[in-house]
Amino acid sequence: MKEIVVISGKGGTGKTSLTASFAVLGARDVIVADCDVDAADMHLLLEPDFKIAENFYSGVIAKIDQDICTKCGKCTDVCRFDAIPIVDSNYVVQPLDCEGCGYCARICPVDAIKMELQNVGDWYISTIKTDSTMVHARLGIGAENSGKLVAKVKNEAKRIADEQQKDLVLVDGSPGIGCPVVSSLSGASFVVLVTEPTVSGFHDLERVYQLVKKFGIKAGCIINKADLNPAIRHEIQSWIQAENIAAIAELPYDEEFTRAMTEGKTIMESESELLKSILTDAWQKIRDIL
Length: 290
Hints:
Strand order of the largest sheet: 3-6-7-2-8-1-9-10-11
Largest sheet: 9 strands, mixed
Number of helices: 10
Radius of gyration: 22 Å
Helix content: 25-40%
Mean pLDDT: 93
CATH class of the largest domain: Alpha Beta
CATH architecture of the largest domain: 3-Layer(aba) Sandwich
Shape: elongated
Order of helices and strands: EHEHEHEEHEEHEHEHEHEHH
Distance between the termini: 10 Å
């Protein structure tokens, strides 16, 4: 089984739109995994049915039993995160402030504090418009452990691929270089780097590629809106060649790209024959490399 991960150094480069278009091109041959759990939006383009939904529990949070609590205040004294203020004469844990260290539970003289598993989000298995399967998730507001939720999504996608005897898993990774990106890259066969010809786009491309190199994964690059800044585009082209990164495609700026997104369509369902032709060739090039 091969695993293609599409990532970008920064948001707004068109990463998810391109990944969704590759999902359409791959159709039933691919299992799709949306691992951008902090800001999941591929469902807006691929029309999942959310047929299977489950809570995701990770990490712990303190909870005070008010019937047992003697209001001694020791928990508040030792909490370094100021997560246990007094509310209506009771000591109450603030979920967004609690780091789950468990110190308050250890020092409570009457065992009124328990550490409970947190429900940090939900994950789903859906059939999408291509009649293929997509595994996706949504992290709760202010929740942590996004890397673990990414791992859950990827593992489920690979399990389904084995069950359905599919040879390819297509992953929409998170932007940046944080924990969810590291989790997205784990086990990847090939990485597609999506960038744009801007100062920040090039800088963040270089930064995220350093992470990819540490994993020792072969990579290719797509330059979106390539005609916006010819000078920086040329710098990116030279850098790609120097780093031995495969030049997958360059897409011109096209308002049809944005129009398709606002209509909930992928680029492969847009009116732009040029963009569709470029992406079809790009998908074939990625498959040939694999």
